[in-house]
Amino acid sequence: MEVSVIGYPRIGAFRELKFCTEDYFKGSISEKQLKENAGKLRSVQWKMQAHNGIDLIPSNDFSFYDGMLDTAVLLSAVPNRYQALNLDGLDTYFAMARGYQGEKGDVKALSMRKWFNTNYHYIVPEMEDNTFIRLSGSKPFDEFLEAKAQGILTKPVVIGPLTFLKLAKYKGKKQPADYVDEMIRAYADLLARMDKLGAKWLQLDEPILATDLEKPDIVLFNHIYSLLLSHKGHLNILLQTYFGDIRDCYTDVTSLSFDGIGLDFVEGKETSSLIANNGFPKEKILFAGIVNGKNIWRNNYEKTLQTLFDLQKSVDQIAIGTSCSLLHVPYTVKAEKQLDEKIRNAFAFAQEKLKELSDLKILIKDSTFAQNPIFLTNTKLHGETGHKFEKSVRQRICELNETDFIRTPAFEKRAALQEDALKLPLLPTTTIGSFPQTKEVKTNRSRFKKGEITAEQYRENLRSMITACISLQEKLGLDVLVHGEYERGDMVEYFGENLSGFLFTTQAWVQSYGTRCVKPPIIWGDVKRTAPISVEISRYAQSLTHKPVKGMLTGPVTILNWSFPREDVSPKEIALQIALAIRDEVLDLEAAGLRIIQVDEAALKEKLPLRKSDWHTEYLDWAISAFRLVHSGVKAVTQIHTHMCYSEFQDILEDIDAMDADVISFEASRSNLAIVDALQKSGFKTAVGPGVYDIHSPRIPSKEEIISAIESILQKIKPQKLWINPDCGLKTRGEGETIPSLKNLVEAAITVRKQL
Length: 756
Ligand code: GLN
Ligand code: ZN
Known about the structure:
Blueprint: E1 3-4, H1 16-26, H2 31-51, E2 58-59, H3 67-74, H4 80-83, H5 89-98, E3 100-102, E4 105-107, E5 112-114, E6 121-123, E7 126-127, H6 139-149, E8 155-159, H7 161-167, E9 169-170, H8 176-197, E10 201-205, H9 215-228, E11 236-240, H10 250-255, E12 260-264, H11 271-278, E13 285-291, H12 301-314, E14 317-322, H13 341-344, H14 350-365, H15 373-382, H16 391-399, H17 411-422, H18 439-449, H19 455-476, H20 491-497, E15 499-503, E16 510-513, E17 516-518, E18 522-529, H21 535-543, E19 550-554, H22 556-561, H23 571-591, E20 596-600, H24 615-631, E21 639-644, H25 653-657, E22 663-666, H26 674-682, E23 687-690, H27 703-714, H28 735-755
Parallel strand pairs: 1-14, 2-8, 7-9, 8-10, 10-11, 11-12, 12-13, 13-14, 19-20, 20-21, 21-22, 22-23
Antiparallel strand pairs: 3-4, 5-6, 15-18, 16-17
Helix pairs in contact: 1-2, 8-9, 16-23, 18-19, 23-24, 27-28
The protein binds glutamine and zinc ion.
Glutamine binds at residues 432-434, 485, 491, 552, 600, 602, 643, 645, 728-729, 731.
């Protein structure tokens, strides 16, 4: 039984790739140095996997920014505006990822979207009518040869043609079907070249197969692969799926001449029954994804072995592997020395998952596995988890009734009262919360954490930064101000640190997009607020100005989705526990004089199940309720804002409206304001602030550009319902670009306001 890994994290155990890439952006290291560093990281990881007995080690899972972007470049899908910059290969690549503003021109970045139901973001390839798909890059070959030269025969990994075509954006008249022939030729060339280089396996990732497919998608899938597979030569092709089961196309997949089929046994609710009901072809290898690639908990060998024994009854050839790429988990538990050993033993990050796979490979062959010390240790550790139980929280949840989830009076009535109370101009301007995390901001936090300054000094520094931030916003002429979030490194970690029930890691970073990484807290016990969290700083910020300051909180669904949740209680129960804690904070902020409170649900859309049939029952029903519980207790005049990243929520507009916030801001600039149409059509009641410029790129938007964005939004949305804001928090930006951008934003709003 062979062991296969779908993909490995690539940022480096200490985020080395992030730091050297950022050095390259700053111009402090050369392209050559950057590439050398990347090569060293790849080498370490290949060797580590080989050392752990992984038989099919991935290559080309490395990326300087994102795998979809790599595939676009490999297939020559580089939009004209980036080619026209005439930069070299790597810089063109980074221009697509991050935008470019310099002597060669001024272009925005390609849009970014969440990768299925994860917190990883991919770059959306753009197809123009004159895009001609052909195999033009050499990255997969280079990396294969690089590993081979180090004595490791890898399994190259490439995103498959169907997933690529389905996720790309079509800018001209042409549709996916118009590119299919070119696509097949390009992938056929890829297969031929890999075969020639001596690869034994090639993995084509088709996670799109785990989503709801329409008939034409299945026809397209069959068409592409029946032609493509005739070019495979000696190469074995592994069709890899993940993030769910492939119920819509199982028989199509098993009928084609793939040599291996990778199925997800962790998130794929129907994977086992699909096999049991339809059988699995004798001549193919089933790559069973049994070690969870997304969570961080130790695998339960007893359960996993049971799954494998059951499978062996109907499948002849089985390989085992991860359920998806390990990209979504941190590197190693070993780095977390501060955690109690008992707690550490509950976890398995990427490196430990390699060991789990090799353990399972041993156990499955062992007829007396139940006596095997590997098995016995695993069983013992599983019996020893010590999650903390909070009786008072459980009790409060039991006592909740329907009215706790309903805010009164209804939206329209409150809107009128708020208008009177707040007296904001039309098209009020605001930001999403955070201001640039300058060196000073970060040093203040880190010195306090290390004990180098006292709590009082820390607070004093915070106060002076908040004072400067408020005065900057007044000078810029913004209408609704924020305190700047200087006390927060991360919007979830900050609340986690101030609530009981969370655990923290020091190096457990996971890539979010490009060089941005997140370090999700771990929800270990019942969640409870033991004291007010942000009340003191918010009250202070409000005391400095007559303009309204927004209290700034992170919502329960986002705290849950951006943490690693425990698995012994349901996500609904965890969300309600967090909601109660945030509800108490909302009420305290209101009592402290904050007239506007923003509860960010940046990650609400993220964990929407991939299958439509699961949307409400498995997620939205409790997620929306948790948000409503947070704010249902405030007065009518208190205005509740929420913020969501990424505007891909067209399909759940009704549910978003049902969150019953007064105002919602969201990303829209990078997705060309398509959401605005949908809002108009749906009769959305909540006031909206579609982001008028992209903060994920260092580019400064001009006043004219923002005016035209506002004008085009106003074609669809009434001015009484419209807010003007950037598309997300400004913390990742520098002051150099933030101040002129906001100046342009305010001036643009004033200009348009005068014309109304
Ligand atoms: N209030 C947060 C901020 O401004 C929101 C961030 C987010 O949506 N990711 O940083
Ligand atoms: Zn955001």
